[in-house]
Predict the structure.
Amino acid sequence: MSGIAGALLFGAAMTARADASLEPGFIAWLGGVQDEALRRGISEQTWQAALPSMRPIERVLELDQKQPEFVDTFWNYLDARVNDQRIAAGGKLLHKHRKLLQKIETRYGVPARVLVAFWGLETHYGKMTGRIPITGALATLAYDARRTRFFRNELLDALAILQAGHVEPKTLLGSWAGAMGQVQFMPSTFNRYAVDADGDGRKDIWGSLDDAFASAANYLRQSGWQPGQSWGRPVQLPPDFDWQFARLDVKKPLSEWAALGISQIDGAALPDEPIKAALLLPQGHTGPAFLVYGNFEVMLTWNRSVNYALAVGHLADRLNGQPALSHGRDADNRRLSREQAIELQQRLVQLGFNVGDSDGVLGSRTRAAIRAYQRSASLPADGYPSLPLLQRLQATGTQSTSQAALSAPAANPIVF
């Protein structure tokens, strides 16, 4: 053990006498983190400055382990996030910061309205950036056995931010999961993409909008954002549409989608542009439909939730003067509880369909199983997990269908 690590253990042990929450195992674990930090070039001074906040935070574990009570619908998700208040506030801020945003758009090719939309959804335009010490949150999550390597690396990246002098330890604050600043970057994302746009020598995504907007734009551009291209558009589908094409991994040129009967939401023909798109039905075949382009997939690298990316795209459209979504509003909007989601998965398994784990997470395997069941039952094969679908499965009972057990695709980290 290094002398510095030994000093750490001694100091932490003294602290533990006054704070029974610091377990000996955690103190020893911190010693290992310090040794690794020193090997990465973190100074003893930086370590000691960060040390007081590196202790378990019970609230962080509670939030991390909390299971959602319901599987939200697209409409519920969208309406809670893209409402009149957020649109109005975003419009005012888009105007207020128009010169700065235009300069950043010119440099990176990411539209100002898209940057403001991300800002609005991430932190309500900077009003909710989080007040939890980042090093404490990450130490808590890294010490937990489930994802220790990921969060340990994020903790070391947070120490590197302190080492570089971009922020003081007392202001290194953010969410319980370790996301920081106006645009909620994780420390590793900060170290790869953050920008000192105002030229003060620090990359300050907490207090400098120049740095925050430029960092977000730099991330999107380096992740593949195509300047001059939209994220996608809402569309209308013909009544006899083949629902099997409504998948993110099925990409066709706009001309082919037009040949299948898809039109713009107002009934006009799709634009004659050489762009490939995928068709999304976030609330099944009775809900809204979207053709999404390559920039939508870039948005998914920010957050792997389809509903999140659609909400960002729609908020950006509203900030650009486009109307609210209305098509598909009559879709069944009842939510599945987590228990109902698990039951839906279990009933599919009983009928011979492979959903992976019956854990209430309705990911790509479950949706592939739903599509297969729907095809076997001559239903619209949209892959959407709904309460009417569960009720049909309940009525079906556990009788086996002629459909063989699926060889499901590999799990996809994208969620709805």
